[in-house]
Structure formats: C-alpha cells, structure tokens
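Write out a record, fold above all:
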Amino acid sequence: MKLRTQHRHVIDLILPITIFFVFAASSLAVLMLAANIYGRQTTDAENNYMARISLSYINEKIRQNDLAGGISIQSLEGQDCLAMETSLNDVLYTTYIYMHEGMLKELFIRSDVEARLSDGKTIMEISDFTMDEVEKGLFRFTSVDSDGHTLTLITSERSTP
C-alpha cells in the first residue's frame, strides 16, 4: 500500500491571507465612513443649536416677562433693544436685550436709571441681530450666528394691555 503525501500549494497560503486583508480593508472603510458621517452630524447639530439658542433665549424671556403691554422695542444709544418692564416691590425695572459689539447682551436695570449698552451681560456671540414689531404685540427677531446661519422667530405677547 502506498501512502499518500499531501502536497501544499502556494494558493493554500495566499487565499486565507487575501481574504483576511479584504475583510480588514472593508472594516476600515466602513469605520472611516461611519466616523465621517458622525462628524458631519455632530457639526450640523452644533450649528443648528447655536443658531437657535439666541432666539430660544429671547422667546423664553418674553414668556417670563409677559405683562400686559410691558414688552416693546426701544432705541438705546441708537440701537434697537427689546425692552421688558416689570415691577418688583413697587419699583419699576426694565430688561433690555440687544446686540452690541458682536454679542447678544442683556441688561436688567431700574427704569429710572440711565442705561448704557456697554453695561449689559454677554449672552452669546452673534454676527447680526434684528428685531421689529410686526404689529401691536407681535415681534419678529432674526439672528445670524457666528457661522452665518440665519433663523427668524415670530412671537407674540400672550397677555393683552
């Protein structure tokens, strides 16, 4: 009886190595595509957040200070400001929200004290901010963030004078 010896061919070694490298390359390609998609989604979400935050802040401030006829747009040092009047312990205070030197700012001050734009507290950086009263009690705010994203908010007082 003749014993059979196994002969190994080069293909027996090359085929598993080739399959391993194809699998490794495919895994790397999928991983890089997923990282790229994740990075874009994160950037888009952050840009969307930054563009909306200033308008959400203003909307919340209007809701907090919504007294009959207490919200208006006033000029302070030639700059349009959202002015919200409130009374605390029988003293009248005004909250101003405005853009000054590339920043959205808020100033809470007694109404009988002279207000200056430079005294406000910085809320966030923005490129442009406009406001107008479309009709009595209905306001339009447009904000452009530092990346150039523009959003508009139209909101109204809920109370009536």
